[in-house]
Amino acid sequence: MVWVALIPPPPTTEAGDPTAPQPPWRRQLRDALAALPPARSRALRTLEPAPDTACLQPAPTGDALPLLDLASNDYLGLSRNPAVLAAAAAELAASGLGAGASRLVTGTRPIHQQLEEALAAWLGRERVLLFPSGFQANLAAVSALADRHTMVLADRLIHHSLLVGVRASGARLQRFVHNDVADLKRRLLAARRERPDGQLLVLCESLYSMEGTSAPVAALAALCLRHDAPLLVDEAHALGVLGPGGRGLAHGVGSVAIVSGTFGKAFGSGGAFLAADTLVGDWLLQSSGAFRYTTALAPPLAAGALAALVHLQATPSVGLALAQRAARWRDGLEAAGWPRPPGDGPILPLLLGGDAEALAAQRRLEAAGLLTVAIRPPSVPEGTARLRLVLRQDLPTGSLERLLAALGPGPLAPRHALAP
Questions:
Q1: Nearest-CA neighbor of 122 among 265, 273, 269?
Q2: Is the pLDDT of residue 262 over 80?
Q3: For 72-131, what is each residue's pLDDT tens digit?
């Protein structure tokens, strides 16, 4: 007979029990969460497409009504375009859901090469490489052009992913005033005086996702060329909407070193890309860990993006029509007493100042059947919480009137307009 000693397991601590002894790292996290102001706390919310393509439905639905979507980046409504969906479905049947490996192992499919070649031709660039996400593409782009010996000059409102790329590269960082060519010139001159042969890199977006403003890309590129500083332009929100035929604001500016773009916005798909000349493209292929050590972009997403590109090429004026509609929305908001949202693209920020004010406005609009999101720090600078209104091609007629009625008179409206 074999005797087996049953040794009781050691006592465990419930991680979620605040009264139980906690290791220091857990206490630090708990204290940091407890210190968050209620108006600064975030939560996930589930939404599903409603029968009306311009609406989203809170899930579980219950008695909630569909909400007109004034928040997402699906500017052209291509995420539900029949041709885009059909292309993704066909590739799903042919290639499966995922690529199964990185591009340098067994993950490259014909659809990847087709999309890369089509994008390169459309953008007038020699080389395009696909990435699973825009965040990842921006990390790769910065790491390709910067290291610990580099001084990076970035627009003060640059996207977080590019800042993470700078930190990962070990480069030194300076921020120049938003869209201020003169301030960038001063900093470039100072950098060249300090280190005449030093490595430089300049970062900007073409359409800033929270501001709605557009960079003077041609002027920035000319300045960078004079000072031998490569320019990286994040075109994530401009492609498909701004520039000739929706090709972005860097189109035709040959001195731009890298263009970063995504498929999760106007293309209605997912994933991202970097576009450059042959030299920079080859360097990315050989050196980029963000490209080498990740599973390739899912083939159905690539197929959907290619179908979206075909649609954009067939309707080159769609971005211009959206910009014209955006101008009418800006006029309407200004006439109602709201500060005119800057820029001329489909992103219309409505600055409200405090977090609580922005959240209250979000709730007021949702009660009227309009879906917006209060954008609060750290996504935007302190004291500039806002509603980020997004104009989409598929919004029905009368959407602006519904918005103005829900917002009510703005702070700049005449006093008689504010009277009950």
A1: 273
A2: yes
A3: 999 999 999 999 999 999 999 999 999 999 999 999 999 999 999 999 999 999 999 999
Of the residues 74, 155, 234, 355, only one is catalytic, namely: 234
288 carries an active-site annotation: no
Catalytic residue flag (residue 48): no
Establish whether 159 is a catalytic residue.
yes
Q: Which residue in 69, 73, 74, 251 is the catalytic one?
A: 73
Task: Tell me if residue 73 is catalytic.
Answer: yes
Q: Which member of 209, 214, 269, 399 is catalytic?
A: 209
Told to judge if 205 belongs to the known catalytic residues of this protein, a careful annotator would answer yes
Catalytic residue among 74, 91, 205, 235: 205
Domains and CATH numbers, the chain: 80-314 (3.40.640.10), 317-391+406-413 (3.90.1150.10)
